Amino acid sequence: MRKLVYYVGVSLDGRIAGPGGEFDFFPQGDEQQTAAYSIWMNALYPETVPTAYRAAVGVEDAPNRRFDTVVMGLGTYRPALDNGITSPYAHLRQYVVSSTLKPDTDPAVTVVPSDPLSLVRELKGEVGAGLDIWLCGGGRLAGTLLPEMDELLIKTYPVVAGTGIPVVDGAFDPTVFDVAERTAFPNGVTLTRLTRR
């Protein structure tokens, strides 16, 4: 069965964005560190690079390695939409969970007005589906989908945000994950893969 994988960047205090949705405060390191980190991450997960930037980072024709489907909340989708990009991950099946977004925003994007748990259960149960489902964000959607979350890929950046959008924003529901692997980069970022116990 396909897995739901939450792949996201977080601050040391567990924020995926600032209070206004800012994400430009995550430190990347110097130019050489940033390039090495980006090359490594883009080679590992090329499908997580938005379609508009794939050519610039050399993954335009790279096949999807881990994911063939992306699920995101409106807050995650909004920055692309505000820049006139209605299909940010055209190389993936795209689902946006929103009760306010118009369903005809883009023919390549399926708007899910309610019940994201049923959507994810349906996607996970698809027969013949080969790759996993990427939960791209945000925190409230992650809180709702926690019962179906199989794996976490957490990029931890060496910065404290102080406030902002939490990585998981939901009811108190302690859920244990085991660390499967951890990679540290010279720019201070740590990638941790965790699997549900």
From TrEMBL:
Transmembrane segments: none annotated. Residues 3-189 form the Bacterial bifunctional deaminase-reductase C-terminal domain. Gene3D superfamilies: Dihydrofolate Reductase, subunit A. Pfam families: RibD_C (PF01872). InterPro entries: DHFR-like_dom_sf (IPR024072), RibDG_C (IPR002734), Riboflavin_Biosynth_HTPR (IPR050765). PANTHER family: 2,5-DIAMINO-6-RIBOSYLAMINO-4(3H)-PYRIMIDINONE 5'-PHOSPHATE REDUCTASE (PTHR38011:SF11), DIHYDROFOLATE REDUCTASE FAMILY PROTEIN (AFU_ORTHOLOGUE AFUA_8G06820) (PTHR38011). This is Dihydrofolate reductase family protein.
